[in-house]
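Fill in residues.
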């Protein structure tokens, strides 16, 4: 699983001209899943995500987590995080999870962030052509990769 996390002042997602999700301060999280991902892997990734201390405290140090600042999450599915560009000029997405499996992981993460962690979570639409807008704060962007975190 890959989570591209962007600290934002605001973010929104639009499908067919209609805004379907938006947040103010928080994280825009692009989630890519592969077929090897499990709910247990997702649990470890979410624990890392919610504990990330990438918001500034009163001294300007990145010491605060999403919960510390009352932030929200805009969660967007993003199979292209598994793009393989090593050969040729057209990316291969063979490493991305099957749509059915990836959607199950996406729905699980959405549910758990809301229920287990009590976060405000807005979403895109799985598999849709989406337009995502954001005001990146910093900018501050990090990649969380289960191959590194769940070892």
């Amino acid at each position: 699983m890959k989570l591209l996390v962007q600290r934002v002042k605001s973010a929104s997602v639009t499908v067919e001209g209609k805004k379907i999700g938006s947040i103010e301060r928080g994280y825009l999280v692009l989630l890519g899943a592969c077929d090897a991902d499990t709910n247990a892997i997702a649990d470890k990734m979410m624990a890392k995500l919610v504990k990330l201390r990438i918001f500034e405290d009163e001294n300007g140090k990145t010491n605060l987590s999403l919960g510390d600042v009352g932030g929200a999450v805009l969660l967007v599915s993003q199979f292209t995080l598994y793009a393989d560009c090593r050969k040729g000029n057209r990316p291969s997405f063979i490493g991305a999870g099957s749509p059915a499996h990836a959607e199950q992981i996406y729905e699980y993460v959405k549910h758990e962030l809301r229920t287990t962690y009590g976060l405000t979570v807005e979403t895109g639409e799985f598999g849709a052509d989406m337009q995502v807008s954001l005001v990146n704060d910093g900018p501050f962007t990090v990649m969380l990769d289960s191959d590194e975190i769940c070892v």
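The helical segments are 39-51, 99-115, 146-149.
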